[in-house]
Amino acid sequence: MNTIIENKQLSENVFQITLEAPMIAESRKPGQFILLQVHEDGERIPLTIADVDIKAGTITLIVQVAGKTTHLLSQLKSGESIFYVVGPLGNPTHIDYFGRVICIGGGIGTAPLYPIAKALKEKGNYLITILGARTKNLFILEDKMKAVSDEFIICTDDGSYGQKGLVTQPLKELCEKTPKPDLVVAIGPAIMMKFCAETTRPFHIKTLVSLNTIMVDGTGMCGGCRVSVGGKAQFVCVDGPEFDGHLVDFQNMMQRLSAYKKQEELKYHECKLKNIR
């Protein structure tokens, strides 16, 4: 059992959970994630480790309510426990000095992006951050991201904050400048990552994306997280979660992500109606 230290609501459907997990906190590296199971008979879901406090022995998870399990997580209080937490899983981000790096976060994707951006900045890279969301109240970790950035750009679909438009607009402008970026890291909705990769492709700029697929066991055995990368089958839990964005078959990935959408929505609404905890 892992005890919840704090569960703080960041926006309408986004919660920041500080969880007691000393061994994970000590060994985690940027880009890695955990699998958790709220109750003994519940499903397992992957969540990226947004931050750690080694001294306190805690990890920070940011959860967007989108289904039954994330709803259950959002309802837990300080002092309550999560039945099962395992990690850190996945390959950590390769942190090095690249030069000019652009980090792009879309909505909840800013949570896994933050530890990567922080580590890249600490390595001496010139860091340009672009954050995007549908509207102003959906941004998270803005102050933390701004603190590690040399340049900081905000975009909203509705123009309620920062520039009006998609993150691909300032990305393209930055790619056209001299010197061009040496690396782009994009994390967010699959469709956003796809178009970020398509924006950088003509400029031949290395582009990393972090994939959040359906995942069950975290060992590569179940095949639920299978994606096609460069025409070859890869498993996000053991081969990723980061891949070359120019090689990912996003269309196939998005089809697989939506395979159980109706069932997920049904269980979520049943859970809310019954106020299950």
What would your notes on this structure say?
This protein folds into two domains: 2-89, Elongation Factor Tu (Ef-tu), domain 3, CATH 2.40.30.10; 100-257, Nucleotide-binding domain of ferredoxin-NADP reductase (FNR) module (Rossmann fold, 3-Layer(aba) Sandwich), CATH 3.40.50.80. The chain has 277 residues and is α/β, with parallel strands linked by helices. The chain is globular. It is 29% helix and 32% strand. Helix 2 packs parallel to helix 9 (261-274) and helix 5 (168-176) runs parallel beside helix 6 (190-200). The strands form three sheets. It has a seven-stranded antiparallel β-sheet with strand order 6-1-2-5-4-3-7, with helices on both faces. Strands 11-10-9-8-12-13-16 form a seven-stranded mixed β-sheet, with helices on both faces. Strands 14-15 form a two-stranded antiparallel ribbon. The longest helix is centred in the C-terminal third of the chain and has 14 residues, at 261-274. It is built from nine helices and 16 strands. Strand 4 (44-53) and strand 5 form a beta hairpin. The model has no long low-confidence stretch (mean pLDDT 91).
Summarize the structure.
With 277 residues, the chain is of the alpha/beta class. The chain contains 9 helices and 16 strands.
